[in-house]
């Protein structure tokens, strides 16, 4: 079977919502490719293209793609097999009223630096410095349970998680809130620091190979995204404050650890303080995102 | 010259203050060993030893040690050469009104789990699970500039940073606020997750080999602790909220990056969003602690 390519030109969204119209329906277990445009819709092509404000329509997410058989209460498994750059430069920007140091008087808002990809696509150039390319998917998620949520915001459905683990080799799991799940993704970066401090990574278009499948009757009641990076399992939670986000991520993790090891929540909590730990995804979106990681040797597939 | 061993029995503090009396004066460049007691002063030796509250006198810091020639405005360089366990079990605990999930109704407060060290000291046992031993120094710091700060609190002088990078092979740098710097340390853990969610790691006594030296006329005005782990340089900041802590850590880092690469702060900020990133040290002490990491290939010794 030829692998289906779904392009942002075929359809993309700026909101995750309960009712989403699929542009393609994939079979359970099908391998497909999402072609994405950079988060700023090609508006920034040189250092003189400045963003005076973050646009209302930002983070175009290619899709949504329905997955046959997915119904509310299921878990959608997304194996991220490859994330390839589909253009030869990225861009890292500041914009007014956006970013961790948005009030710093000596930092320009707006500012743009285009980052050229060197031949062979192994690194990008920031001024004179070479930065290794580690493409990640910034926005990835499914139809929401009730609210309509813009692609600038992360929440339980995924969305703008800006999580460096959403990369080649990771398996991502999402709760299914609506028939067909309705997977969409975009907002890729050629490189991004944990935290995404200035508000962006090196924003770039990508082609993303994934295999999607539906998990029925999961032993775990998945409320939020979960990833298996190969080395570690990580819960992912978004909230108004970092304090709330890390609390949710830790609570999600200890529930999983308790189930895996037949531990009390107290034991799971104490154990969680010894291995892996809390990580920061991003601190700049309207809700911030944190992770709680546990090494794979202490945790197996909960589904 | 025989290496001087400074034991908690010789002297320890529960506060970092502007005026501290040294129990030993080291030469600039001297290699010494700090012998530390566990953070709970041996009060917890079995699972039935419960902490009904966090004691006022917690985190005994062995010292302080004056370093000859250190004067305010200098930087104290502490090469952490080895952190060895000096007892055969650690303990991980919860206590009332302490820890990330202190209000969780299904988690016991207090609770204690003693973690035995397996032979060869390569791992500890948490119930049936083996956890690799990675000894870290939880509390390490110098005399403060003005305030008296208990050893339960982290701040610009260091103190209760609970940072997993304070381990064998790391070089830690502290601002010198008082004559002699007055280095003290304790509160070690045999293992700890980033975040220290339940409020402790596996608390344990250690013997710590360090070499201390004084840096004069530093090009960098160091306000807070900085570490060189060999792989990365990391700024470390403590504040009332994670949001404030990561902002301070990022601002400290971009100042260093700007100096290193002759960048504007804007360029340093944009670059900081592409490599390394924000990390969590601990979210449970009266001030929380975060780091901003940059890989060593982009940063050289600023002193």
UniProtKB/TrEMBL annotation, chains A, B:
It comes from the Archaea. It holds the Pfam family FmdA_AmdA. SUPFAM superfamilies: Acetamidase/Formamidase-like (SSF141130). GO terms for molecular function: hydrolase activity, acting on carbon-nitrogen (but not peptide) bonds, in linear amides. PANTHER family: FORMAMIDASE C869.04-RELATED (PTHR31891:SF1). This is Acetamidase/formamidase family protein. It comes from Haloquadratum walsbyi (strain DSM 16790 / HBSQ001). The lineage of its organism: Archaea, Methanobacteriati, Methanobacteriota, Stenosarchaea group, Halobacteria.
């Amino acid at each position: 079977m030829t692998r289906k390519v779904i392009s942002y030109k075929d359809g993309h969204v700026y909101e995750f919502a309960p009712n989403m119209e699929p542009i393609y329906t994939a079979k359970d277990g099908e391998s497909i490719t999402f072609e994405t445009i950079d988060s700023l819709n090609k508006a920034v092509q040189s250092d003189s293209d400045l963003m005076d404000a973050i646009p209302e329509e930002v983070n175009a997410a290619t899709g949504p793609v329905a997955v046959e058989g997915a119904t509310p209460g299921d878990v959608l498994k997304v194996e991220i097999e490859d994330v390839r750059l589909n253009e030869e430069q990225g861009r890292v920007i500041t914009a007014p009223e956006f970013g961790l140091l948005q009030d710093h008087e000596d930092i320009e808002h707006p500012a743009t630096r285009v980052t050229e990809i060197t031949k062979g696509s192994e690194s990008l150039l920031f001024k004179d410095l070479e930065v290794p390319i580690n493409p990640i998917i910034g926005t990835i998620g499914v139809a929401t349970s009730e609210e309509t949520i813009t692609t600038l915001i992360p929440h339980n459905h995924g969305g703008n998680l800006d999580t460096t683990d959403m990369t080649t080799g990771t398996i991502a799991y999402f709760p299914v809130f609506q028939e067909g799940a309705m997977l969409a993704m975009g907002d890729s970066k050629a490189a991004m620091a944990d935290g995404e401090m200035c508000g962006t990574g090196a924003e770039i278009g990508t082609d993303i190979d994934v295999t999607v499948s539906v998990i029925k009757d999961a032993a775990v009641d998945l409320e939020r995204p979960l990833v298996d990076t190969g080395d570690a399992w990580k819960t992912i939670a978004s909230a108004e404050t970092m304090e709330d986000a890390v609390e949710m991520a830790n609570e999600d993790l200890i529930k999983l650890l308790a189930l895996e090891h037949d531990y009390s929540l107290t034991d799971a909590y104490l154990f969680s303080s010894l291995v892996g730990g809390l990580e920061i995804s991003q601190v700049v979106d309207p809700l911030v995102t944190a992770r709680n990681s546990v090494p794979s040797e202490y945790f197996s597939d909960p589904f």
